[in-house]
Amino acid sequence: MGLLHRLWRPRAKAHPVTPQIRKLTERLLVLSPSLKLAEGFRERVTPALARSIDYVSGVVRSLPPPHEASAANWLGDPYIHAFFAAPDEVARILSRSAELHAWFDAHPLAHETYAVMSMAMAERCTFGVEQVGDTVHADVARTTLSFDDHQVRVCGETESDLREQIVERVVEQIALEGLAQIGADESRRDALVEERALLKTRLQLLKRQGAGTHKMLGEREMDGVTEVIALQAAIDENAHALGALGLKTDALARELQVICDVLGHPEQHTHVEMKHVCLNPMNVVIDAAAAPSGSAIVFPLARLPASPLGERAFSLVRFARTDLVPLPGFFDERCSFVI
């Protein structure tokens, strides 16, 4: 009966493999080719990838629509006004992106591109003068926002194309977090193996000197026994730590398990906060109810643990080819140093 039950037991329904899942699976194999050898790789990684894609897609859908990044739109769009200090900075700063130039070179018929613009945001508390009715108050604490280090790395032909690319890039970054954990485990293993060899060598040297024998012990010998006991405890602790990392022969299975665990819990490896602020023309944070003339803006602050950039402010933008400023050439840079 048990055999028949196992034979006729319905199998778990396989998760559908979408083109996006297939694309990200192949990307995983580029990042870590050894995963291909892990048993059941595609069957196990597909639902984990689907979980990450669903979660990240929900976050990306909540992003505000793109804003036209141009000098002409600086005064009329509170977002572009907040992100850039002056209208002539918009094209000049964004044109520093080599990826933006490469995208237009690869799409000669495109008049504009949709792009992700990331920025470092700084909040500064200062004291200034504030007028309330007919009364002027001095030394009023206020918060100002500033944005710099504008980066454009991802471009798309359409808004939907751009959002799809964002999903794939973020899921890939989550997978990198898993690979970073695997690398840390392997480095930890190597360090523990080296430490174990040193501890055992030290223990052997002490025993050869007579420590641990059953003869009548003097003071020096007793000190040696104490050190032997401490070394043996360190060796036991080392063995326990190595055991927690699993067998070296199980490395592939453990690597796949780590990747699936990370991809299956994307909310633990991404953090996106929608920042709601009301700003005056000087980028001072104000109370929207007290100052209806201010501009309310909403933009995401995102942090990915495996990313070296830390927390960044983001905005989707549209940028026209006609606003693209040529990258400075080698001789242009040299001439700037000539006095």
What general outline do the C-alpha atoms trace?
A: extended
- What are the low-pLDDT stretches, counting only 5+ consecutive residues below 50? 211-219
**Secondary-structure element order, as H and E?**
HHHEHHHEEHHHEEEH
Q: Determine the strand fraction and express it as a percent band.
A: 15-25%
The tally of beta strands, per DSSP, is: 6
Mean pLDDT: 80
The largest sheet, given as strand count, sense and whether it forms a barrel, is: 6 strands, mixed
Treating each run of at least 4 consecutive H or I residues as one helix, how many helices? Answer: 10
Question: Distance between the terminal alpha carbons, to the nearest Å?
Answer: 93 Å
Question: Nearest-angstrom radius of gyration?
Answer: 30 Å
Structural commentary:
The structure is a single chain. The protein has two domains: 175 residues, no CATH class; 71 residues. 47% of the residues lie in helices and 21% in strands. The chain has ten helices and six strands; from the N terminus they run H-H-H-E-H-H-H-E-E-H-H-H-E-E-E-H. Strands 1, 2, 3, 4, 5 and 6 form a six-stranded mixed β-sheet that branches. Strand 2 and strand 3 form a beta hairpin. Helix 7 packs across helix 9. About 3% of the residues have low confidence.
Q: Can you describe this structure in just a few lines?
A:
This protein has 339 residues and is α+β, with helices and mostly antiparallel strands. It is 47% helix and 21% strand. It folds into two domains: 61-173 and 264-325, no CATH class; 181-251.
